[in-house]
Amino acid sequence: xxxxxxNIANVVASGIDIDSTSELVSKAISARATTFLEFVQSLxxxxxxxxxxxxxNGVKAFVTVVKNLPLDFxxxxxxxxxxxxxCDRFIDHHSFIPTVLSGIEYTVQxxxxxxxxxxxxxxxxxxxxxxxxxxxxxxxxxxCILHQIFLNRLEDVRFMGPDFLYCVISSMDGERDPNNLILxxxxxxxxxxxxxxGHLTEETFDVIACYFPxxxxxxxxxxxxxxxxxxxxxxxxTCVEEFSDFCIPxxxxxxxxxLIIAKLDSLYLLKLCCEYxxxxxxxxxxxxxxxxxxxxxxxxxxxxxxxxxxAAIGVLTALLYSLxxxxxxxxxxxxxxxxxxxxxxxxxxxxxxxxxLFIPSIKxxxxxxxxxxxxxxxxxxxxYLMLLDKSDVSQTEITxxxxxxxxxxxxxxxxxxxxxxxxxxxxxxxxxxxxxxxxAQNELPEVRISALKALQIxxxxxxxxxxxxxxxxxxxxxxxxTTGSIRNETLSCFKExxxxxxxxxxxxxxxxxxxxxxxxxxxxxxxxxLNAICSLGxxxxxxxxxxDIMCANLCRNQEETQMTLNCLRELVRNIENTKLLHHFTLNxxxxxxxxxxxxxxxxxxxxxxxxxNEIILNDVSFVVNSIVKIxxxxxxxxxxxxxxxxxxxxxxxxxxxxxxxxxxxxxxxYMVILLESILNSVNQDVKINNVTxxxxxxxxxxxxxxxxxCNLSASRLAATLIxxxxxxxxxxxxxxxxKLHLESNLHLANVNKKNVINQISxxxxxxxxxxxxxxxxxxxxxxxxxxxxSYGKMMTMCFKMLTxxxxxxxxxxxxxxxxxxxxxxIFCYVIEPLVSSYNTLPEPIKExxxxxxxxxxxxxxxxxxxxxxxxxxxxxxxxxxxxxxxxLQSLKTFRNLLESxxxxxxxxxxxxxxxxxxxxxxxxxxDIRIVALQCLYNCCDYSLIKLLPxxxxxxxxxxxxxxxxxxxxxxxxxxxxxxxxSIDVIKxxx
Length: 990
Description:
This protein is mainly α. Helix 2 packs across helix 5 (52-67), helix 21 (358-369) packs parallel to helix 23 (395-414) and helix 33 (590-603) runs antiparallel to helix 38 (662-679). The chain is globular. The model is unreliable at 326-331 and 986-990 (pLDDT under 50).
């Protein structure tokens, strides 16, 4: 490719199209059609022009061409010329600096650049470049140059000594832009660790420390957060040992601040000091550190929030780790002395079990004890003996003592400390288990719960005789009519015991009680035991037992079957039980048992109360679906191959529902529910034969059946199979035939129109989720059907379904295809036709479009709504009237938009606030009045200039609502009125 350099020079001189022209030149140079030298020679007149603007255009073209060439393109000799050129241009005129900096940033990354060139750059930059007088983008470019030097060329500038260090710190001195600061804070630690600071150590620290604590207010447009800045700054301040003499006093000084943010930043910095600096440096400040930490941790002042206390405990933990590594004598004298100080400070709170800081003090000591075994032993000895020796205490105090002892026990277990080895407890440690066992049988629920929690922690410490007592307590509580909280704690103890003593649990609790239970007709008692056994679903030892017990209790009678399936629903929901669900798919597993029982029961018209009970069938479907969903593709294929033969009537034969006998109609209707439970969650890679025929049969069954659960299952299954398996050119033919078939069914006199509409809705959703090419055709059909007087109102459910997300069907967990932002695409397609039809069609048909609009709005956020808000708002405002049927739904939409601070609403406050006030006073429904008041409350988040003109009217009208006869409404009125009264105060403070 030959370059027309005369034309290029003219373009560059004009400055109009430099970037695209330079790109063409770069391609020519890369292709060796011309040389870089020829290009530079063509710019001779431009680069030597007396007009600075023309020279600047030449420099821009020069730099742009260089930046479009690979990093390894130039030889050292060529780079030396480029380097010299950029240095000369840097001092030519101040307007050249941004362009030259961009060129320097690129060339310092080049493969053949030498140490001499790097030094030449900085010898040119340092005397002629005052960083903080430049624009933000130019300062950022300079910091990027430093980043490249720190990463790859630090050795080249090391001999420059303090001069280069001074260049770095002076360039950032006074920097305020958060984007520049976050870059600096990220790159400085590497530089400071690898560059001698010498006599500039304190100056370097001061330049960085002036930003501490970070004063930065985030906005919605902020790309970085205050926490990012703060954490990176703290790492800069602690990155080198030389900073320790300045950093620790700085953190302690800022800890005296009353601002919570400043406290949190200072505590985090102090924690890093303990982790990174030499422990010898920490020792000299230990008394002052503890004085401040004690005030924070042991105080109940307002500024000692839970977050601040947790941060202070983190510092204390880091401090103790630091002390533990100080080399000293065998008794760890320094650590021991400090632990004594902590224990002495905590004693007064430990002596008073009713004090607010009793439990927080123990939690503090537990954090301390987890830093070393030495600390753990010392604290456990002190606290255990203090708590065990307490007598004549109230029931409330007992609860706290047990909780405290449980926390200390947990600390010892985490540190692998044997309680019997703790000095002073060698003869009393069994008392602790007995103490917990005694109070686990207490009448008061709070005492019992506290004791059970402590027992769960201490399970593996109990002796053989204590465990027998423990098992008796668990058994009694499982059988008792206790509160939900006690039952949950009991099952937690049961699970913990089963983890360590499987055989004992199996023999002493399960088999002993289950054998007796099998002889009982007490359904409630059986449910309690089945529920308890299901709680062991994550222990492989009990898999066969759970499987066999569940199978044995299915189909005995309706009540037992319902009870067993309820337990199974909870069991399959628990993600901890994944391995158990795989066990259920084995040959003699629960999945085989359930499917075999219900297939035979439905086909043989057995016990209708069990096999055709809709509630039971729904549970069966859920359990089977949940098991199939969790297993691998190969296991799914095996299950499908094993059971598909029992569904041949649906899978291999075209069904004509009206020609079937009544027995066959019922049989097919219930069998399709089981078929859906198997196929719903199979992966798309699992092969299913005759998919098109199954879809057609499902549509047939869903259309004509009178059984509601069958209609739902058949409709969903057809939609699921379309989503997963209908692909390619044949899909259009299949979908066109389905559409024609459903259109003809809508006009049949003997067909339930609701069934057909339901099937259309599910197929439309299936196509919309997938983003199928036929999606818009089906959505258009749905829009047209809204206008039909006979079934238009039913069709509104399609538009609700299009925005709803179902946890069990047509989602990615079931391996369906779901496109990103599908709801937003549907909304943008349908909203204008819906609003247009609502505005033009007569009553009552327009109501169908209104309902569909509300469903679509509810399913989308303000970002999607905002371009169409001018069309939607008039519709919503019409509904804000006490006489409107859909006022509550419209109000909830407003509330959601107001809660998300939708900007576009701010310009319409004067339109809807009077309507909200009217509803809050005059609606006869409490729910409407409450939501209207909540909307008014959320209006206060908008700008003061928009709210002030309305303030007087709103407060006056809200005063009339204070006499509302409903307490919940009055409560909302007080809250809303208070917010409006304070808006100008709040905004001024901000």
